[in-house]
Design brief:
alpha/beta; Rossmann fold; 2 domains; 6-stranded parallel sheet; 4-stranded parallel sheet; 11 helices; 10 strands; about 45% helix; globular; binds D-glutamic acid
C-alpha cells in the first residue's frame, strides 16, 4: 500500500509516529508543506488549493492508494472536496477529538486548542453542535496563533512559548477544565508544557492513534494484509528544522526538497 501523508510542517509526523506503530507492508510518503505554513491563518480557499495540489502530486508521482490529511486545518477546509474528487482513494482526515474528550471529562469542562482556521470553520462548528449542544458539557475554545511557528522552530521549551501557553491556559486552569483536546497535530509536541501548566491535572486528547487505526481498518477492507516492512520518505516544500524531525522520529531520515510548489 502506498500512503501519502501531509501537513503544513512537523505536526503530521505525530500521526506518522502512530502509523509506524500499527501499519506494516506500506510505503509512507510524507510532505511537510512548510512553504505555506502555517495553514492556520490562511483562508479556506488557500488551504483547499494547497491540499488539492499536494494530493495531485501524490497521485501523479507516487500513485498512492491512501491519503492521510494529518492536519486538522486542512481537513476542515478540504476533506469534502477530496472525497468528491478522488472516490478511488482511501481518505482519512484529522478531526479534533471532541467526542473522546466529552467521554473523558469528570468536571464537564473541556478545553479545545486549535488553529484560528479550524475553530472558525463550518465543519468544526457542526462537530461541536452535534456533540455538545444541549449537553451539560462546557467547551472552552482557544485559538493558539503563533504556537505552530514556535514548534516548527523547536522553541517549545522557551520562556516565550511558556508565556504564550500560560496566557491561553490560565483561564482553563482556574475554571477547572480537566480535559483538553489537542486540535492541531502540532500541539502534541507541546503536550508536556501544557500538562505542566495545568498542574498535571488534565487529560490531553491526541488523535494520531485513532487516525492510524482508521487507516488500517479501511485498508484491510480493501485487502491490505498488513505484513512486511514499512518505509518512510520525507519531502518538504520549504525549509524545515531537520534536528526537530530527527528528534521526533528517533532517527535521521533524509528529507527531499520538492520545488514544484
Ligand atoms: N498541524 C496543523 C493542524 O493540525 C496545521 C497547523 C498550521 O499550519 O497552522 O491544524
Amino acid at each position: 500500500m502506498k500512503v501519502g501523508v501531509f501537513d503544513s510542517g512537523l505536526g503530521g509526523l505525530t500521526v506518522v509516529q502512530a502509523m509506524r506503530g500499527l501499519i506494516k507492508g506500506a510505503e509512507i510518503h510524507y510532505i511537510a508543506d512548510t512553504k505555506h505554513a502555517p495553514y492556520g491563518d490562511k483562508s479556506h480557499e488557500e488551504i483547499l488549493q494547497y491540499t488539492l495540489d499536494i494530493t495531485e502530486y501524490f497521485i501523479k508521482r507516487h500513485n498512492i492508494d491512501a491519503l492521510v490529511v494529518a492536519c486538522n486545518t486542512a481537513t476542515t477546509a478540504a476533506i469534502k472536496t477530496l472525497r468528491e474528487r478522488y472516490p478511488q482513494l482511501i481518505i482519512v482526515g484529522t478531526e479534533p477529538g471532541v467526542k473522546p474528550a466529552i467521554e473523558a471529562t469528570q468536571s464537564g469542562k473541556v478545553g479545545i486548542l486549535a488553529t484560528p482556521a479550524t475553530l472558525k470553520s463550518e465543519k468544526y462548528q457542526q462537530l461541536v453542535d452535534t456533540l455538545a449542544s444541549g449537553s451539560e458539557i462546557t467547551l472552552y475554545e482557544q485559538a493558539c496563533p503563533g504556537l505552530v511557528e514556535q514548534i516548527e522552530q523547536d522553541l517549545v521549551d522557551t520562556e516565550e512559548t511558556r508565556g504564550m501557553l500560560e496566557g491561553w491556559l490560565c483561564g482553563m486552569r482556574e475554571t477547572g477544565v480537566d480535559t483538553i483536546v489537542l486540535g492541531c497535530t502540532h500541539y502534541p509536541l507541546a503536550a508536556e508544557r501544557i500538562s505542566e501548566l495545568m498542574n498535571h491535572r488534565v487529560s490531553l486528547i491526541h488523535t494520531g492513534e485513532a487516525i492510524a487505526k482508521r487507516l488500517l481498518g479501511l485498508a484491510q477492507k480493501q485487502g491490505h494484509c498488513n505484513n512486511g516492512s514499512l518505509s518512510l520518505s520525507l519531502y518538504t516544500t520549504g525549509s524545515i528544522n531537520k534536528k526537530a524531525v530527527s528528534k521526533m522520529l528517533g532517527e535521521s531520515v533524509p528529507i527531499q526538497k520538492i520545488d514544484r510548489f
